[in-house]
Amino acid sequence: MATTHLQQTLKEKQRQQREDLILKVAEEVLLEKGYYETSMEEIATRVGIAKGTVYLHFPSKEDLVIAIFARDMQTFLQGFDTAIASQTSASEKLTALLSFAYTGIFSNRTQLLSSILNSVDMRRIFAEKGECLRSIWQALAEKISVILEEGKASGEFDASIPTGIMVSSFVSLLSPQKFERLITVEQLPPDVLVYYISRIFFKGIVIK
Amino acid sequence: MATTHLQQTLKEKQRQQREDLILKVAEEVLLEKGYYETSMEEIATRVGIAKGTVYLHFPSKEDLVIAIFARDMQTFLQGFDTAIASQTSASEKLTALLSFAYTGIFSNRTQLLSSILNSVDMRRIFAEKGECLRSIWQALAEKISVILEEGKASGEFDASIPTGIMVSSFVSLLSPQKFERLITVEQLPPDVLVYYISRIFFKGIVIK
Amino acid sequence: MATTHLQQTLKEKQRQQREDLILKVAEEVLLEKGYYETSMEEIATRVGIAKGTVYLHFPSKEDLVIAIFARDMQTFLQGFDTAIASQTSASEKLTALLSFAYTGIFSNRTQLLSSILNSVDMRRIFAEKGECLRSIWQALAEKISVILEEGKASGEFDASIPTGIMVSSFVSLLSPQKFERLITVEQLPPDVLVYYISRIFFKGIVIK
Amino acid sequence: MATTHLQQTLKEKQRQQREDLILKVAEEVLLEKGYYETSMEEIATRVGIAKGTVYLHFPSKEDLVIAIFARDMQTFLQGFDTAIASQTSASEKLTALLSFAYTGIFSNRTQLLSSILNSVDMRRIFAEKGECLRSIWQALAEKISVILEEGKASGEFDASIPTGIMVSSFVSLLSPQKFERLITVEQLPPDVLVYYISRIFFKGIVIK
DNA sequence: TATGAATGAGGATTCATTCAT
DNA sequence: TATGAATGAATCCTCATTCAT
Predict the structure, then answer these.
(1) Is the CB of D50 under 7 A from strand E?
(2) Are B98 and B173 in contact (CB under 8 A)?
């Protein structure tokens, strides 16, 4: 019995591992080729399993992609909390977020998140199937919102600017798309980039 | 002779009109559905012509899409110049640009431009066929760059922030993607949005 | 009245000339590209007229092709008679025919005739529409048949070989397909080729 | 393990069988309709499988056709060797070849081979993709060449006729195209036909 | 459970033919 | 009469998904 149960758990663990591997590989291919140029075949091959096996984990290509994003956003949400945990002021928290998005292992995922979320194709998919994603996204926007409100309350941020616009602006600056060239081609160190972006977001480009 | 010539012109004009109509419709469908979910058939049907007729104007789906972007960017470039023509200070020019991007008839196109240019799928197509687009894009970035340099030279803008980062930040804020919800769902008037975005970009969100 | 009639004739002549030109050009393209790779568009363009104009002369692509072959076979039939006119013995006549097929301006057409008649595609077309062709072909086979019978009657040819098989064998050797390489690549002069082919046909390859 | 291996072999065998069936059916349709009138759809339907399945075996229509010819020529080459194995003199060998080409199950294939190889359309396809075919063809011509040279060396054949011309003539007489009518319409038994053709090729039609 | 062969809907593209001008 | 824009049937090919083994 106990053995059976352990085997159960072992199998479950293996299953989980494989699922994670599929998600990881699929994410890579997706980032490289985009949704429509990515075939289930290629994902399976790269993982080293058969096409059918992917379907044992995810009922459809759409669901697979949604799972990728769900996981990424979840991870992001967690990293998010970790990143702001050690910070006190609202602006420090936001800077820490930028840092988290542009630096280290997560930069690739941020890239994926924003790059694909922006595409019309993805939007359609999420519009139909991605209810769970929207809620995570909501949570994210809410967290940023809270920080901004905190900053306003403490007199740090300009309370006359609507929080919603602040959130959107911040999110815009958090998408690595537009800054990619600076990092890859012009070899700008990510932390320098983060420094300047936060400076712009907080103090603007105008000399006072 | 004169008649022939006029007919020539007339036909040419009709051809041009149809081509414009195809571009317009295709742009709409593209914006709704994205590249891969858009079929030539649907474009043709919506225009009210046969599939084959589309091919009389554009040799392939890719070419059609590239034509759309080329036209949009061209139009944008022109509107751009018009928009900044009557402005004197660098910050006024940038605000005018934001205004141009978010207000009036062009807002849809800005949407398309940024929404599709960001998709991985489009990137691949443009990487192969869209040399002309890259040059227009270069021109655009260059123009913004010039304005920012002007502002720096006149002491208006903070010269210690690299222009490249300023450009990317500005372009980020110029993509309507992230602000779309505010306009459509929360009914925020575009000019109010522009007011706040420019305020953030110029002065930041921190209280001095 | 007379003028009208002359004009009529003139127009008719022009029409005939154009029709001939279309046939000539179409024949060239056909020889180069084969039936299915040849488009009506290309024929028209090469002639220097519009696609629709071709249809004023030939109701369909199939009909155009049939017209080409009808003309070619007609020409061949005439050249045939001219070629054998000055010959007396049956074998001289056949040699003259080989010479006619492989030498001079007609070699191209012989090529076309045999090359296309052999293709399955053409067969289908001729099976459906080419009744006229079959009759010309009949006439041709009949003429060769007559010469062979003459030769048999005069004791020149071996009467124990069925004439039908002789005809088919002769026609086989008359198709430039298999000998093309010898002429183009190995630069064998056509008349030398004719010399040897007739020698094989008449005396065989065995040493007596 | 053994089971797995056997299953492997079984599957492989089934796959091979299906592939052979596709080739066989495709060959039939091709012979009936020619390359361009043959659709992948029809081939699939006649085999009793779906369109896509054909593509599991052959990456494109062109490749399918090339595979047909490759197999046919291979088979021909083998039958060729078998046919001449039991013969001693050069002329007996050549007669055996004619017999092989016109008699029995291979007659259809000979038909296809010569009928399609002669069409301009096929030529174009093979020019692009059919390198392997050319080499097989070379081998065939070479084998015939060798037999003819043998015959010349043994004093059997007339050494004053160039071997190349002999080869081409022989190949011409080996194409069933021109003799088809005799067999199908006039009900001439193939072996009688072979008898006369070889007689013509060896001794000619002239009475000595 | 894992496989991968089979499916077939879907879409881009071509081109013979028609017909309004 | 000549044109060439418009048509749409036809075809190749892809790939997400299913299912027998």
Answers:
(1) yes
(2) yes
Q: Is the dihedral of CA A77, A81, A87, A91 positive or negative?
A: positive
In Å, how far from its chain's centre is CA C47?
A: 22
In a domain, B183, yes or no: yes
Q: Is residue C208 part of a domain?
A: no
Distance A72 CA to E3 C1' (A): 30
Say if CB C60 and CB C128 are below 8 A apart.
no
Contact D92, D199 (CB under 8 A): no
Flag whether residue C179 sits within 8 Å of chain D, measured between CB atoms: yes
Which residue among C121, C148, C186 places its CB closest to the CB of D164?
Answer: C186
The minimum CA-CA distance between B105 and chain A, rounded to whole Å, is 20
Q: Give the number of domains in chain B.
A: 2
Name the token pair of B198: 């420019």
Clarify whether residues D67 and D53 are in a common domain.
Answer: no
Which chain C residues have a beta carbon less than 8 Å from that of D116? 119-120
Three state DSSP letters for chain D: CHHHHHHHHHHHHHHHHHHHHHHHHHHHHHHHHCCCCCCHHHHHHHHCCCHHHHHHHCCCHHHHHHHHHHHHHHHHHHHHHHHHHCCCCHHHHHHHHHHHHHCCCHHHHHHHHHHHHCCHHHHHHHHHHCHHHHHHHHHHHHHHHHHHHHHHHCCCECCCCCHHHHHHHHHHHHCHHHHHHHHHCCCCCHHHHHHHHHHHHHHCCECC
C/A touch flag: 3 or more CB pairs below 8 Å: no
Task: Kindly state whether B184 is in contact with chain A, defined as any CB-CB distance less than 8 angstroms.
Answer: no
Tokens at residue C100, please?
């006619």
Within this chain, do residues C71 and C130 fall inside the same structural domain, yes or no? Answer: yes
CA nearest B133: which of B59, B76, B93? Answer: B76
- Contact by Cβ (8 Å): D28, D45: no
A51 lies in the same domain as A113: no
Output the CA–CA distances (angstroms, integers) from residue C60 to B53, C39, C65, C73, in the order listed: 22, 12, 9, 20
Q: At what angle do helices D120-129 and D131-153 cross, to 10 degrees?
A: 100
Contact C109, C175 (CB under 8 A): no
pLDDT in tens, A99-153: 998 887 667 777 777 777 777 778 888 887 778 888 888 888 999 999 999 999 9
Please state, in angstroms and rounded to a whole number, the distance separating the CA atoms of residues A112 and C181.
60
Residue C172 sits in the same domain as residue C75? yes
Structure tokens at C171: 């026609």
pLDDT in tens, chain D (208 residues): 445 555 667 788 889 999 999 999 999 999 889 899 999 999 999 999 999 999 999 999 999 999 998 898 888 888 889 989 999 999 999 999 999 988 866 677 777 777 777 777 788 888 877 788 888 888 889 999 999 999 999 999 999 999 999 999 999 998 888 888 898 899 999 999 999 999 999 998 888 6
Residue A128 gets which letter from DSSP?
Answer: H
Residue D129's nearest CA partner among D196, D197, D70, D200 is: D70
CA C196 to chain CA centroid, nearest Å: 22
Instruction: Select from D123, D140, D58 the least CA-distant residue to C118.
Output: D123
B103 lies in the same domain as B13: no
Assess B175–A contact: CB distance below 8 Å, yes or no.
yes
Residue nearest to nucleotide E19 (CA to C1'): C52
Q: Is the CB of C39 under 7 A from strand E?
A: yes
B65: containing domain? 60-203
**What pLDDT, in 10s, does the model give residues C71-102?**
988 888 888 899 899 999 999 999 999 999 88
